[in-house]
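Late entry, written up from scratch paper. The run itself happened at the end of the previous shift, but nothing got recorded in the book at the time, so transcribing now.
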Amino acid sequence: ISKKTFFNIDMTIDDIAAFRKLDAKRIDGVYSNKDVGFAMINKLGLKNIKYAGKDRALNYFIGFLKNNNSEETVKKFNACFEELKKNGTIKQILKKYGINSAK
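Output as recorded:
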C-alpha cells in the first residue's frame, strides 16, 4: 500500500492503540474489519473517525477442538445457534457491540 499511495505504514501493538491514534489524528487511517472497527469506536467513545468503505467481504468460521468435533457436537451446536438466532438472542448480543448479524 505505501508504495502506491501517500500513506505511511504504522504498525501498532493492538486495535485499541491504532484507533486511538486515528482519533487523535496522529495517523490517516486504520485497516480493520468493519465490525471490529465500529466496536472499537463505540467502546472507546471515539468521535473523529468515519468509515471509509470495504476492501472485501469476509467469511467467519467457528472451530472446534480436534477431540471435540464429533458430528453430534456440531449438530448440537448448530441447533442451539439456530435457536438463538431465531429468538433474537444473537442479534441482541451483537447489537451491544455495534455489530450487525449476517443474513
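Residues 71-86 form the longest helix (16 residues).
(Scratch paper discarded after transcription.)
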